[in-house]
Amino acid sequence: MRGGEWHISAEFVAKQSQPVAVSVIIPCYQGGATIGRALASVAAQSCKPWEVIIVDDGSDTKNRNRLQGLIEKYDSGWLRVYFLDKNQGPASARNFGWARARAPFVAFLDADDSWHRDKIALQFAFMQRNPDISICSHSCGGEASLVRSIPQKFQITNYTFKKLLFCNRLQTPTVMLKRDLVLRFPETVRYSEDYYLWLALLKIGYTTAFINLPLTAIHKPAFGYSGLSAELWQMEKGELKALQATWNRGSVSLLRFGTAVSWSLSKYCRRVLLSIVRT
Fold first, then answer.
1. Are 101 and 74 in contact (CB under 8 A)?
2. Residues 211, 85: one domain?
3. Distance of alpha carbon 90 from alpha carbon 28, whole angstroms
4. Which has fewest Cβ within 10 Å: 204, 213, 227, 245?
């Protein structure tokens, strides 16, 4: 891609009747109540992906039975479900699916989120036409924030390592990337494991683009809610450890590292205050 910013016509969206070369990976832990909605949003894509890989991360029998029901509902050649014996965390589950992906592009979705019907079409077309791009993301929000249809023009920008240090807009359910990237999610990390990976990939030179369109619906608040997103301090510690790992690799100057840490802590304080207001 040339330059740092474009306005792209809606004609850019892929229009193909056959499945496109994308593997979708969905980690699932105790997500039986929402996984059907997530999978339905993939099945409803205007450009259907080659395959969907669900990795159950040690859920209980009730949730596993729900996944078995999905196997019977969808074509087994299109949907593959794997069951891990014990809970290992989202990084391990995603890596397990990533290792078994057969398409040259991989997209991630969480079991409690869903996609706009043109998400795959738009990202796949963009990455095909811009082979120098290794990672592509877009904005996300509540279900009401999704665009009804792709506008005639929209904005795509470079998303650089420097930007990522201060603002992680590469939310995992928005990311499509090339399958053969050299790094994977750190499996010893339970919080902000995606941030670890994005920082490492961008620092070693992988080029990233950000589409300024909300194409993923997050069906719970980003913080101040039950589950992982409610554990604000754990998430903050994960982000700080990701920044520390970046510093340890010699990827940033002391000044930039200190500024990024200070900014991260200020965002954490704001989240805490907002979560108190919401309760």
1. no
2. yes
3. 8
4. 227
Q: What is the length of the chain? A: 279
> Beta partners for 109?
none
Does residue 31 lie within any of the structural domains? yes
What tokens does 91 get?
């990084």
If asked whether residues 142 and 254 sit together in one domain, one would say: no
Per-residue pLDDT, 246: 92
The answer to whether 138 touches 174, Cβ cutoff 8 Å, is yes
pTM given for the model:
0.90
Alpha helices per DSSP H over the chain? 35-43, 61-73, 90-99, 119-129, 161-166, 193-203, 232-248, 254-278
Q: pLDDT tens for residues 42-55? A: 999 999 999 999 99
User: What residues are paired with 83 via a beta bridge?
Assistant: 56
Residue 6's pLDDT band (cuts 50, 70, 90): low
Q: By C-alpha distance, which of 26, 29, 28 is closest to 41?
A: 26
Q: What is the pLDDT of residues 10-22, one digit of tens each?
A: 556 656 678 999 9
Amino acid at 110: D
Residue 36 has pLDDT above 60, yes or no: yes
- Whether the CB-CB separation of 211 and 128 falls below 8 Å is answered with no
Q: Is 233 helix (H, G, I), strand (E, B) or coil?
A: helix
62 vs 76, 97, 162, 209, CA distance in Å? 21, 22, 44, 40
What CATH number corresponds to the domain at position 184? 3.90.550.10
Q: Which domain holds residue 237?
A: 228-278
Question: Residue 108 burial by CB count (10 A; 0-12/13-18/19+): exposed, middle or buried?
Answer: buried
